[in-house]
Amino acid sequence: MPELPEVETIVNDLKKVLPGLKIRDVWTDLKKLPKNIKKEVVGRKILKVERRGKNILIHLDKSLTLLVHQKMTGHLLYGKWQKKNGAWQSAIPGPLRDPENRFIHLIFFLSNGWQLALCDMRKFAKVVILATEKIPEEFRNIGPDPFDKGLSFVEFKKIVRGKSGKIKIVLMDQSVIAGIGNIYSDEILWLAGVHPLKPAQKLKEEEIKNIYKAIKQILNKAIKARGSSYIDYRDAFGRKGNYQKMHYAYQQTGKKCKKKDNGIIKKIRIAGRSAHFCPTHQKL
Questions:
Q1: What is the CATH number for 189?
Q2: Whether 85 and 169 share a structural domain
Q3: Among all residues, which ones are annotated catalytic?
Q4: Rounded to an integer, what distance in angstroms lies between the CA atom of residue 92 and that of residue 224?
Q5: pTM for this structure?
Q6: What's the CA gap between 43 and 189, in Å, rounded?
Q7: In this structure, is residue 143 part of a structural domain?
Q8: In Å, how far are 43, 55, 215, 223, 283 from 220, measured between CA atoms?
Q9: Together in a domain, 132 and 157
Q10: Does 163 share its domain with 225?
């Protein structure tokens, strides 16, 4: 599932091309989309694009917002497509023709002749239309963003200490902090030197401080690398990210720890999710 760095990368890409354009038409084969989506968005002007946690918000005129949560395999793409033999194919040579970009299930036709498409192999993505004023209500159960200026160490410590689960699961809880998932929780805990099975309530202050610092360090590094394309994630122009080449822990099972502490990365299961860590410097 695309996490904060991947969503931020796509949002930053779309900010460069979408504002000021109008939506001229909509095509989809997704039955679960709002039935009124075409009626609501056609003719609307795109004002701005932003991220909230793992959600993409495309704000339209007349106080409407298109909310996209890409879920497990979804990613938004900006390009040009044409239908051949019953399937949408990129009319532009290059990365948009990557096989991972072929699962087109929703297209917004734009006023400049280009298109915004949702590629989603498993068709789990969420797309809804909201009155812009309803956005705070939609996110009432989502925790603070890691980059929120108001998320001080004191506030973060209070949030973490208030949870009873294992720290790996706590970091992935979107009601605790928004945007972190399986990949980056592993990376953050590796850098912080904290075992993923440690109960959040039993963490020492120094350990919480290390996690707090590592969150921004890891997420910023991943954003600069344009996210992790471990399997199917691609940016808005169809290109792979690069952070998968830099992973410290995630999917590094059996490899030597990059801290050069003679540790070998191990993989365990926690609440049905994988967790990768170094048993040498991430002790329980």
A1: 1.10.8.50
A2: no
A3: 2-3, 54, 273
A4: 26
A5: 0.96
A6: 46
A7: no
A8: 36, 18, 8, 5, 26
A9: no
A10: yes
**Amino acid identity, position 70:** Q
**281 CB-near residues (< 8 Å, 6+ apart):** 193, 257, 259, 261, 263
Torsion angle (degrees, nearest 10) of CA 166, 228, 20, 92: -150
Backbone angles phi, psi at 87, to 5 degrees: -130, 145
In tens, the pLDDT along 119-174 reads 999 999 999 999 999 999 999 999 999 999 999 999 999 999 999 899 999 999 99
User: Which residues lie below 8 Å from residue 65, measured CB to CB, with a gap of 6+?
Assistant: 57, 58, 59, 129, 130, 131, 132, 135
Same domain, 21 and 83: yes
Return the DSSP state at 156.
Answer: H
Alpha-carbon distance of 26 to 107, in angstroms, equals 6
Q: Give the separation between CA 187 and CA 216, rounded to whole angstroms.
A: 11
Domain that holds residue 49: 4-138
CATH number at residue 104: 3.20.190.10
Residue 246 token pair = 């830099």
